[in-house]
Amino acid sequence: MANRRNSKLNEGTQRFAAKLWEIRFVLLMVFSYLLLFGWLFSGEIRADLRPTEVLTIPDDPLWKKPDAEHWFGTTGTGADLFQLSRVAMATTLAISVVVSGIGVGLTFLVVMMFAFDPGERRFSLLKSIGRTGVFLPAMVVVIVLAGGAGGSLIVTVLTLSVLVALHLSPTVAGWLEEGEERVGTVTGYILGLTRPEIVSNRIVPQILRRLIGVFVALIPPIALAEMGLSFLGLAGGRLSCGDLISRGQEVIIEAPWMAVCPGILATLIVVALALLGWFSSRFFKTGILPRWI
Length: 293
Description:
Layout (H helix, E strand, L loop, with lengths): L1 H21 L1 H18 L9 H4 L26 H35 L8 H9 L7 H7 L6 H28 L2 H8 L4 H37 L9 H9 L7 H27 L10
Helix pairs in contact: 2-11, 4-7, 4-9, 4-11, 5-7, 7-9, 8-9, 9-10, 9-11, 10-11
């Protein structure tokens, strides 16, 4: 009896170890994201801090150059620039994650609206939008200004999410068409399965798997778009890395670290996220993504 129990325990342990080894890359990526986001969102500075509270330059500035105590130096009000940059980057990435999630969700919903149509030209509208979609990023600022919100958080998130869905929908529609040409799908039709059954059970799971990699790969370009908007003064009063760089340029002679240091931190984090996104897209086999990603 004891040997039998031990053998079952050993078998269970081996299966568990084999499963962990199978998903080792996922665990490594999840750990990397948790480590990065945990560091960004930990700190003593309030997340709702407004730029005017810490970036206003008084008549007698209190800024200091970067040193061992303040790695990025201090602002004119004496605030630690490294902590401010970290909070600003955390805000940018939080917006990027939300936009990426909403954008991928909208993309899936839009494509599924046409997926069950048996016609060969069911995705012609999406492909037409995709051909004109290359001009849409230049309209982000115009849309935000037209909204009359001055870059408010809700308008920014919704605008970027819609742009992501418009750009990504033709690609996902192409994935669905590829799935219909696979051997397993054709076999399903031969066996008498209906189109809704084949799409729901054989094609959609593969698309959802690939969309996980797309979600991760979207975060860096969306972060760059958000920083670009905030650099242009459309941050809506929130602390953003682009806003820090923009305000630092006003005092580039007196305190060059005000613009350079936040830019260095933003570059390092975006590069790290881009590498993680690349590994994720390789693991989830997303294939060739649009060039803007």
